[in-house]
Specification:
Blueprint lengths: L8 E3 L22 E8 L2 E9 L10 H5 L2 E3 L2 E5 L5 E4 L1 H14 L7 H14 L12 E10 L12 E10 L10 E6 L15 H5 L2 H9 L4 E6 L2 E5 L3 E6 L2 E4 L16 H9 L7 E3 L4 H10 L2 E8 L3 E10 L2 E4 L7 H14 L10 E3 L9 E3 L1
Parallel strand pairs: 1-3, 1-19, 9-10, 9-16, 13-14
Antiparallel strand pairs: 2-3, 2-8, 4-7, 5-6, 5-7, 6-18, 7-8, 10-11, 12-13, 12-15, 15-16, 16-17
């Protein structure tokens, strides 16, 4: 493609499929029959292709295999109660994807093309978007990988962008019971580093402490950096203290950025809290404040929030000083209100005042769309 040209999406070997009712028993294990691919090389993007899902062939020296050169996103397509399919906040995801690409020296994808690629793939595999009455959805995973075949540690020049879809159930179930976290004195990401980029290395690096947490009966590790509460390996953290919804700021502590990922679900929740007349504060939380607040009863609810988790209540923080559990071990009133309001907007039950829902229809596919 030349500069200024519009991406063409070619479709080959496609076929209409209605979800064969295969059991969706966990997150991310079932994928749909098609995928989108697009190649970048010689400083330009080629056309996009939708084809049957297939394996990817890489040279053994491909950059991504040695230096973790990738950026990905996690998004949702949800079938509303009227039967239509909507993608949740694709513009926000496109912007975050491109910010991550900039940090990881990958080519940015023009936002309209990023969104239309997703629209086209979701439209073709529409039959695999499940009913949302039990919180089910179709998870969307865009990913860009550096494919340059060279072992030298230099900015790569060749990339493959692809999208796959995965019909999924809620990560922690339709009616999630409060769980526990293991607080660890570790940094998930360092100030000024790649913590605000959605890149695979950040997540791979969190698995050691996630495993330790699970080995001791907890769902995740909560990272404590110099006594500052940051986030878990894959979700943002919040607490309810004296009736105020409090979450650590994106610029981390001492105004240093790169520590906490800019969660889209986090942003959505912060936007709807005023609608529910719930006071909110983005400020630093120390571990001492959190544990003391649980002990005194000032901290009444805790939770994590993310695309897969949505909003998952937490009842217990385990730390080397002991185990700290909020007084009410049930789903808290504020967490419940926020979660229900968020999911009702997603499902089209309540008004989408913030314009989060992006409809996927044949009419929404404006770029050249060719069958091959």
């Amino acid at each position: 493609m030349q500069a200024g040209e519009i991406m063409r999406i070619h479709v080959k070997n496609s076929y209409s499929v209605v979800n064969p009712k295969k059991a969706i028993d966990s997150f991310g294990t079932l994928t749909t029959p098609h995928m989108f691919t697009r190649v970048f090389g010689e400083d330009t993007w080629e056309d996009g292709w939708i084809d049957q899902r297939h394996s990817i062939e890489l040279d053994p020296s491909a950059f991504v295999l040695h230096y973790a050169g990738n950026v990905f996103e996690g998004m949702k397509a949800i079938r509303t109660v009227d039967g239509n399919v909507n993608i949740i906040r694709p513009h926000e995801h496109a912007m975050r994807f491109n910010r991550s690409c900039d940090r990881m020296v990958a080519p940015e994808m023009p936002e309209p093309e990023f969104i239309e690629a997703i629209d086209a793939l979701v439209h073709i595999d529409n039959g695999f978007v499940p009913d949302s009455n039990e919180g089910a959805y179709c998870y969307i995973r865009p990913n860009i990988i550096a494919t340059t075949p060279a072992l030298g540690l230099n900015p790569p020049a060749e990339f493959l962008f692809y999208i796959i879809l995965s019909p999924s159930k809620p990560f922690f179930g339709a009616n999630p019971a409060p769980q526990s976290l293991l607080a660890v004195d570790q940094a998930r990401a360092h100030p000024g580093g790649t913590g605000q980029a959605k890149t695979g290395g950040n997540y791979a690096g969190s698995l050691l402490f996630k495993k330790r947490a699970r080995d001791h009966g907890h769902i995740e590790a909560l990272y404590i950096d110099q006594n500052q509460v940051t986030e878990t390996g894959a979700a943002n953290f919040y607490m309810i203290k004296d009736g105020v919804f409090i979450t650590p700021p994106l610029n981390g502590f001492e105004g240093k950025s790169g520590v906490i990922l800019q969660g889209i679900t986090r942003k959505s929740i912060l936007e709807i809290l005023p609608d529910l007349n719930i006071p909110v504060s983005e400020r630093a939380i120390t571990l001492d404040e959190l544990l003391t607040g649980i002990t005194t009863g000032n901290v009444t609810e805790m939770g994590i929030m993310g695309t897969a988790a949505v909003i998952q209540p937490i009842k217990t923080i385990a730390y080397d000083r002991g185990t700290y559990t909020v007084a009410s071990q049930q789903l808290g009133t504020i967490t419940s209100a926020v979660r229900n309001h968020l999911l009702n907007i997603y499902r089209g039950i309540e008004e989408d005042k913030h314009n989060w829902l992006h409809p996927v229809t044949a009419a929404s596919l404006s770029m050249v769309y060719q069958e091959r």
